[in-house]
Amino acid sequence: MYGSTQEAALLTKSALIVVGVIRGEKTDFKKGETLDFRGMSKNQFNQFVQALLKQGFQGTIKNQ
Q1: Cα gap 44→23, rounded to integer Å
Q2: Is 42's pLDDT higher than 80?
Q3: Is the pTM here over 0.85, yes or no?
Q4: CA pair distance 39, 37, nearest whole angstrom
Q5: Cα angle vertex 58, ends 15, 6, to 5°?
Q6: What percentage of the chain exceeds 70 in pLDDT?
Q7: Angle between helices 5-22 and 42-54 (to 10 degrees)
Q8: Radius of gyration (Cα) for the chain, nearest Å?
């Protein structure tokens, strides 16, 4: 009847991380960590990536 609670938790976690990064808050990612970008516009995603790179992120970003 309702969606997966694991999926909802990932969406919530992702939204909090994205907002924090855009605000300039430092975020540490673990290798292989997954975020869910569903519902974000291309502009929002690019803003997130630019803020992440500004923090010195040097990993790989895959948007599937």
Answers
A1: 13
A2: yes
A3: no
A4: 6
A5: 30
A6: 97
A7: 60
A8: 12
What residue spans define the domains of the chain? 1-26+36-64
Residue among 15, 16, 22, 17 at smallest CA distance from 40: 15
Q: Which ranges in the chain belong to alpha helices (H)?
A: 5-22, 42-54
Q: Give φ, ψ of 2 to 5 degrees.
A: -110, 170
Q: Are the C-beta atoms of 61 and 49 separated by less than 8 Å?
A: yes
Q: For residue 7, what are the contacts with CB-CB under 8 A and spacing of at least 6?
A: 36
pLDDT in tens, 8-35: 999 999 999 999 999 999 888 777 888 9
